[in-house]
Design brief:
Layout (H helix, E strand, L loop, with lengths): L2 H4 L16 H17 L8 E2 L1 H8 L3 H13 L3 E3 L5 E3 L4 H23 L4 H15 L6 H16 L4 H19 L4 H20 L2 H20 L3 H4 L3
Antiparallel strand pairs: 1-3, 2-3
């Protein structure tokens, strides 16, 4: 595991006067750092995580490392064998595409359910429009994916149970999106698709909403089908 991919994690805050972080906060920070490295592909599929090495690399004890790795295992980003050796989950192309199909079904359900709430048009739809308007073609991959997630959060209902499930699915497949070659034409299509979904939501046409979300997810799914899968899967 490359120390450069993760870097040192200081126990104290970088902001003067804030003092040391608590153990639980430290565990959260280890979790965030390792999850980000997995999603970005800095820790490829099949990489074994050495707990001692990771603790030394991040400058922490093994306690927050164990906590973080268990959380990542629960999110299916890591697998663990009986000897508690953690390995970055490796998904086949078929499994990733299956997750995209699942995401498609869940997003349709979540969006239609959120649209039925009485405050959707006054609260959630304007929030989604604001995020959509902030997305720029020149964004980094990380900024783009974060903004895209915020857009969909506004449509699915922030804090809803189904939104959390969708997030878990998205985290499992985002690393493959990160490994795909940047595609400006696809970004332009995404912006147009977002706008079309927003307009359909305002009209309240459920068949149109369903059709547009299906196409939106399928287009990203199809893009992954044509990428260099042996490189993306770490094989």
């Amino acid at each position: 595991m490359s120390s450069g991919a993760l870097g040192s994690l200081d126990r104290s805050s970088g902001v003067a006067g804030m003092g040391a972080v608590s153990r639980s906060t430290l565990g959260d920070r280890v979790y965030d750092r390792v999850r980000e490295a997995i999603i970005r592909g800095e820790l490829p599929a099949g990489t074994e995580i050495n707990q001692v090495e990771l603790a030394n690399t991040l400058g922490v004890s093994r306690v927050p490392v164990r906590e973080a790795l268990r959380r990542l295992q629960a999110e299916r980003l890591l697998d663990a064998n009986p000897f508690q050796r953690y390995v970055v989950t490796q998904l086949s192309q078929e499994q990733v595409l299956e997750l995209y199909d699942l995401r498609q079904t869940l997003e349709i359900f979540a969006t239609l359910r959120a649209r039925s709430r009485p405050d959707f048009l006054d609260v959630d739809l304007p929030a989604a429009r604001a995020v959509a308007g902030s997305m720029d073609l020149d964004m980094s991959a990380e900024e783009w994916l974060q903004a895209d997630m915020e857009f969909h959060h506004s449509l699915h209902g922030r804090g809803s149970a189904v939104s959390s499930i969708i997030d878990e699915v998205r985290f499992r497949i985002y690393r493959y999106v990160h490994l795909a070659t940047p595609d400006l034409p696809r970004r332009q299509e995404v912006l147009a698709e977002h706008q079309a979904i927003l307009e359909a939501l305002e009209r309240g046409d459920e068949d149109e909403i369903r059709t547009l979300i299906e196409a939106h997810v399928e287009h990203t799914r199809d893009r992954l089908v044509h990428m260099n899968w042996s490189e993306a899967s770490g094989g």
